[in-house]
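Q: I have 142 residues here and want to know how they pack in 3D. Can you give me a structure?
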Amino acid sequence: MRIWSLHPKYLDAKGLVALWRETLLAKHVLEGKTKGYKNHPQLNRFKKLKYPCAAIDQYLSAVYDEALSREYNFDRTKFRQRNKPVKITVTQGQIDYETTHLLKKLRLRDAKKYKEVKAEKMYEVHPLFRIVKGGIEEWEVL
């Protein structure tokens, strides 16, 4: 399971679809609707929040918006629109790690997207996150 801190616009088609599916799985875990993945490290940053389901819905909303911009047909009924935006911190070290990880994936899967993403000077994060100083997050599986 990978819930990217980077903005979903950097993902290739395969990555965006995988992110949608994996985040829906995360939502089910947070709602107590599945037996698997309950202790997955990627979920720790959501579990520590007062309203983890609201945060995961907000996360899905941005993924959905990116899918719409690409004219993909994701199901809007899979998440609730939330009125109060949540912000979660993510470290710069985590963003650097994820950028390197994503570029490796794109180099193998999608040469055009790889060149596009590699040319970026500054990488945006998913709208749910706010960058703070620090190394790779403790929940990251290296």
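Q: Anything worth noting?
A: The chain has a mean pLDDT of 94. The helical segments are 13-30, 44-47, 52-69, 92-109, 111-118.
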